[in-house]
Design a protein that fits this description.
Rossmann fold; 12 helices; 341 residues; Dihydrodipicolinate Reductase, domain 2; alpha/beta; globular; homotetramer; 24% strand
């Protein structure tokens, strides 16, 4: 046994953790050494799938094992800052699921720690790695559709998350909207200066949490571009994730995906599959490519696609969108002192 | 020769007038007797295509010809009220292109005149007759997608209208947005209580007219439904007219149409037609069916699909959307005294 | 009243006759003067829809009315030669539904009569006028897909024709297959030299007529091109009419059409319309354009798109395809003495 | 390290071998122990990607290593029988790329050896594991489209294989057509009794090999079902793999796949991706699922989806299709003594 795979630890074995665990196992550039989870059984079960991998319930063995070069953080958001701080100090490269934190100052502090110890910190907005979105981004930035005028994204979840998850989700703006906010900034290359939100809670259980399940966010950008973000906690017809960009010379769209291409046609009509069930199916390549990007970052080949500035601005905009929703009025977005990226 | 075709006059031979003229000629239930236009040559040219049809430059011959039972009004909006008032007095059934007027009190007065003389007045929002939109409406109202949560419409024009037209168009909210506002009320069966608009003018010539070419309207409805209307004066890839409705059990969409179904596939990809060029192509069946509906109304078989209440509320909402755009803030919608329909 | 519309008579008021009657009425370049049908009631009913139109049961009034310049023949095939011969002698331009005749010598005689009296004879293969097929033809002949290698057509009928119709239809090869044979020659610009047919009769009523409902024809062309024609009497999911051409640089396809663009998506999948119901819906523009082409031919602007050579070769190939089916072996196609076109 | 992964050896590291190698590495139920290839460098390079894996140039170490429970055979077809015979004797479970052999008696002998030593032998027709084809198969066999009447498959290759490969490919009928023949039998549940083939060689290099690049095969089945197989060595627009089944109550189709869902729309039209580049992209899930099926077979959970009878009949039909092509006439298919499955 002698490959150059980078030893890595997975922190958090929940639903997104399992996605990353599978991808680490399938990626010959990485070697899974630890799975850390508060549920020892789960940790050991995943660890058993890889050679030379341990399932543990504490971060310490990882921090103390100098052979481990990188960690992938998939815990609930609240635990991110402490893990990042400790891992940075221990010299591990860090990929952390989005958002780094709901609080801008904590995001800044995490990046400061990473910078202090010279370790890369990659925030996991996987949609930037989705082949369809990447192709749309290329079409837009290449000028194929002319001057951008409208950007519209749709993120409608499937299945409805559990109430247990929703309670720790950071509410719909940070949990779902942050992805779309990131996409809007990435596509336009601009920071919005104002946000207006209309939102409803049709699901009584969600209403009770003072959260919303149906959201329409409007963003205004300095160039005149207008963006619209459509969020829902339920898409009965499958996970619904789309982008559409209107330019003065054309339009670019990324449509949904279906598991099969099979069409059954009868006198009732033409029936095809519901869309992919949920995020692991929809973003199967995106997660794999994100991980590959992380390896490139670890090896110093490229800078992280998502910068400190990106991570903090997404959080600031999500916060402003929620504020607009509560006030029922547009909110100017205050980015504070800008960062040098 | 002895058919029961209803003698009808066309008032206004511009681009939409020509659409209606062709449909009148092709509809065996109607017989075109007059084409009225200030351009005598144009009036006579159209008249020459039908048997027993005269091209004239004044409304008077139509009003004085008792055999004429109905008129189709396709003049600029400003001329509508006078024509409607005179035609009602002369006992003619009236189909009038939208909007009846930009001013709510004038709309009310037109309907009052029609009521006084007992003639039907049908306002021409042709999209309610489009087969795809009708089918979407049926799907939504049948409960096929459950409780409605989000309604989104797109109306992007092609080609960019002339500046001459834009000057008399009543601006984008009344000219384009009114159609979509009507669709949102029709689909939801509700009146929105608040509107917020974000708008830009990328085209300098449009900016100079204090008009906008890129608009995103958000409407809030009492049930919690949120609607989004996306307007643009330019869709380089063909006339873009779509509706999407999200319910808690599914989604209904009406997509664009392409002139042909031909696909040319090479190593560059799969290439299909741009969408239908403009409204006469896109709404070819809608205009024909609207006219047929008008004949049904004349014959007393059905009530007009679009009521006085519909026509005035659309105008009120369009006005509020424009007000929101100028203020940069949401605007509560005041419908005044409600009508009995 | 004074338009230059060409006075025309419709011969045969059956299902295809009604399609042409509607198009004549809607076409300002034509004026319907007679509807001839053995069913006097039907003839008079159609005639009543047009000004100055008579419903009659004999061809004679048409032949004797010098003002009538053209006829459109929609009778059963067996009656074509006599009508064409008489009309040619009377100097009328002739559009005749396909096929002119099932017997090659009769086809030749009809064209000879038309030539003798100097009247145009247009055989009605409407698919050459379908916008999607025309666009496919342009793509192929422009070289966009390189050297043609495979041509495949599908013609699956809906609804299943009545047994009464099937009895006089000339069987599936002449009735349905002739259209596809014409398309294959038109697209390739070549005459096939050999044909092989496999056919089944799943429907017992069709089997009893010694006809088939399911046919696969293979044609070999001198250049090496291979064509496949797929015929069926039943497409439960709507009228199915497609063409696909493979070239060494790409592929051109013309797909089916659906009445609406509406999509209803639920957890069962995405449901869209069945395809257009039948030929009048599918070929609505094709029939209108064919008629317009006929007017151009009458006015001497263009030669008929379908020549004598085309009409006779289609009949010869259809006959050979049926022969192959009966023999269970490939059949060399003998075109006899070639024509000068 | 202690997982229950089954130790496996890969025999042949060419293009299909690499597909299987990746899937073995990504499948936690399997553990790659040997890569055998005549090219030592290639063997060692692949072996380096897995822990505890050796790259060797001879089969012997595999046969002699009792810990190895299974082999995946990806060598040129000619080498299959010897490898299978030796591996069976050594007690290894065998998955062998299609076809087992071009010669029916050799196929029979291979299965006889496997039976003698009690090892499973799975022939790798991966398309039976493709999710879209599986879904189509379910729709057809569930009766959703009624009585099957027509089955059509398309297999058009991309890129054009190298001449070196074509020389050892067994010609287009065995190399490509065998997949489609297998699909037709699988979908219909019947054995065809007659085959007719039309074929051309447009590519001069292929013509020189006495092979064909463009093939249309017609199969007749006892029930009256007709099947059509369309083979081409070149699909410039991407790997083209489709199935269409017509029943008397509907149609089932499996369409091609595109790498992304991105649409770029301009005044030139709507442009989407070419189809997936080639078989590794198109059948990515199919290969993974096939391997999983092999593990199930090894573990005795299921019988191989593809039986001895399937493997030999596919070879017999492919042979008859080639014979028909050379004769230019239909050929009755002789299956010899039938097998007990």
């Amino acid at each position: 046994m002698s490959n150059a795979a980078i030893p890595v630890a997975l922190i958090g074995g929940g639903r997104i953790g399992q996605v990353h665990a599978s991808n680490i196992l399938a990626n010959p550039r990485l070697s899974l050494r630890y799975v850390v989870d508060i549920d020892e059984k789960a940790a050991k079960a995943w660890a058993a799938k890889a050679p030379n991998c341990e399932g543990v319930t504490s971060l310490d063995p990882v921090l103390n094992d100098a052979s481990v070069k990188a960690i992938v953080v998939c815990t609930p958001t609240a635990a991110h800052p402490e893990i990042i701080t400790k891992a940075a100090k221990a010299g591990k490269a860090i990929m952390c699921e989005k958002p780094i934190s709901l609080i801008t100052s904590e995001i800044d502090e995490c990046y400061a720690q990473a910078a202090k110890y010279g370790v890369p910190l990659l925030c996991g907005y996987q949609r930037r790695h989705d082949p369809s979105f990447v192709k749309l981004h290329e079409a837009v930035t290449s000028g194929a559709i002319g001057q951008v005028q409208i950007v519209k994204t749709i993120s409608r979840d499937n299945p409805v998350p559990t109430i247990a998850y929703l309670k720790i989700s950071g509410r719909i703006f940070h949990d779902c909207g942050s992805h779309d906010i990131d996409l809007c900034r990435w596509i336009t290359g601009e920071d919005p200066y104002e946000v207006y939100t209309a939102a409803s809670a049709f699901n009584p259980a969600i209403k009770e949490l003072n959260d919303w399940d149906t959201v329409l966010i409007t963003l205004k950008f300095p160039s005149g571009v207008i963006a619209s973000i459509d969020l829902s906690r339920k898409a009965a017809y499958g996970y619904d994730q789309r982008i559409e960009v209107l330019g003065n010379a054309g339009m670019a769209q990324a449509e949904n995906r279906q598991p099969t291409t099979t069409i059954v046609s009868t006198d009732k009509g033409l029936l095809t599959d519901p869309f992919c069930w949920s995020f692991p199916q929809r973003y199967v390549e995106a997660y794999a490519r994100e991980l590959d990007h992380f390896v490139d970052v670890i090896q110093g080949k490229v800078a992280p696609k998502l910068s400190h500035d990106d991570a903090r601005k997404v959080a600031i905009i999500a916060e402003a969108a929620e504020e607009s929703c509560m006030k029922g009025a547009p909110v100017k977005i205050d980015y504070g002192n800008s960062l040098k990226n």
